[in-house]
Amino acid sequence: MLLDPYLCVGPGSEIHAATLFEIAQRSAALGITLCVERQAWIEAALDPDVLRRRVDLSRFEPIVKLDPLRPPSDSDADTLFVRSRSETDVANLKLLGALHARVADILIALDGRIHGLAAQSGFAARVLTPADALNWLGRLGGGAEPVILREVDPRRVVENGQLSDLVLHECEPFDPYLRARLSAGRGRVMACFEGEEPLAIGVIETGDCIELVALAAHESARGARVFEPIVAAALAIARRRGLRLDALLPPHDEMALRLLEELGFTRDGCDPHGRERLRHAAEPLVPRPAGESSAWVLPLDATAHDHLLPELSGASQTQLFAVGSEARPQTLGSSLRKQVLLPLGPARPEAGDLLLILHGRASRRPASSSLTCVARVERARECTELEDLLASNAARPGYSLTEIQSRLAGGPVTMLDAMLLGRLERFLPLPWLKEQKILTAAPRTLRRLPAEAWERLSPRLMLA
Question: φ and ψ at 370, to 5 degrees?
Fold first, then answer.
């Protein structure tokens, strides 16, 4: 993993110090090399401003110093990135060039321009924010803390110090009337918490469409881990109303803009306040395979199901978020982007195929032996090398290093990248699937549904 040195020494970098220290320790424990460019590190240590602010670089050790990084060639810069026009561009291109040359597998950076260039060149999955990198390492070590997604009364937001600060510093400069609307109880507020500490908020309002009028996180928590559960909640609300979802984000927030594009949003100009407007088309309540694509049943035991879909966790939630001032439920926050590792088989899904998740048999669980949710495959490929799998796994964490190594020890694996479309409004039990001749028995491995079985099943796949 390559570290952007600006995170350690730039103005305001103190807020990331604890996270980066933890990243260094966890990387060392897992045998993952955390590195920086030696020359950039030396120059930072001698910078007068860094000396004046008494930044202690030794606290980030152990860290490996690399020989000078080279920016991409002019042809690669023209093809993948942009030509450098400043010292900052040179520094950014050196970091991204290290990914292109496979000097490093993962880059840790928060700079929006780096994330934007990475998305443009196809490296988005290999550039993590500090918070997302720490979460990935926690997952690899088997001890990541879950986030909790709660619906918060809008009036409480302006009273809560940390949430109020988020609104004041991250949202109000682009929406000066937001605080007044929250004080009047307008909108629905989704907040991600770790323990009792709020990390991020999203404000959802309804008009001709559903609008995510604010999406913000504390700088030390920024990343997919806290943004995706909020976006998932907004998409569920929009789907339930049969409306499209618009998101309004500050134009400088390139990291969040890039993330929403990966989640299926498209940019559609600016609003009167100068915010970027992104649109997500209204989702059908009954998902369909794309074109000539197929549908597959993926059986998971209770542990694997909870691991992939912590928001269900064996519960039968009739509605993910309740309505009304007295009903403020919470659920384990979960990302929309999922990754599944399976033994390499004779056939595998392709991009556009649907994955129907079957919860295995488990006592005292409403979801036992039932189809519970639907995802769409974005990519499927064979993996044989640990390094390649880890580099592809970082943006969609979920497995521990021990689990990944164990699966690879059994031979090549199929890695499925998928986008969760949603849980089913009603779980479909195995006895009904047998009665309708969709399945003859609980499958032991991934199974493609015949066309006639899909036709019998599809009318019942109503998303919540």
Answer: -140, 150
CATH 3.40.630.30 intervals, the chain: 148-280
CA–CA distance, 354 with 339 (Å, rounded to integer): 14
Question: For residue 257, with 0-12 CB atoms within 10 Å meaning exposed, 13-18 middle and 19 or more buried, which class applies?
Answer: buried
CB atoms closer than 10 angstroms to residue 311: 21
CA distance 443 to 66: 49
Give the Cα separation of 158 and 162 in Å (integer): 9
User: What rounded mean pLDDT belongs to the chain?
Assistant: 87
Listed range (245-249, 283-287, 440-444) with the worst mean pLDDT = 283-287
- Residues of the chain within CATH 3.10.590 domain(s) are 295-323+331-460
Would you put residue 250 in left (φ > 0), alpha (ψ -120 to 50) or beta? beta
pTM of the model: 0.90
**Do 414 and 344 touch, CB atoms closer than 8 A?**
yes
Q: What whole-number distance in Å separates Cα of residue 342 and Cα of residue 361? A: 19
CB 106 within 8 A of CB 126: yes
For the chain, residues classed under CATH 3.40.50 are 2-141
| pLDDT tier, 318 (very low <50, low <70, confident <90, very high otherwise) | very low
Neighbours of 284 (CB within 10 A): 12
- What are the tens digits of pLDDT across the range 328-377? 455 667 788 999 999 988 888 999 999 999 999 988 888 889 999 999 99
What architecture is domain 295-323+331-460? Roll (3.10)
Beta carbons within 8 Å of 194's beta carbon, 6+ residues apart: 145, 147, 148, 221
In contact, 447 and 271? CB cutoff 8 Å: no
Q: Of 153, 233, 151, 230, whose CA–CA distance to 185 is shortest?
A: 153
CA distance 116 to 148: 28
Tell me if residue 464 falls in helix, strand or coil. Answer: coil
Domain 148-280 = CATH 3.40.50.150? no
Q: Which CATH architecture has domain 2-141?
A: 3-Layer(aba) Sandwich (3.40)
CB 98 within 8 A of CB 107: yes
Helix (H, G, I), strand (E, B) or coil at 184: coil
- 64 three-state secondary structure: strand
d(CA 84, CA 77) in angstroms, rounded, equals 8
Could you tell me the CA-to-CA distances from 123 to 106, 138, 224 in Å, in that order?
A: 9, 22, 15
Tell me the average pLDDT across 439-464: 91
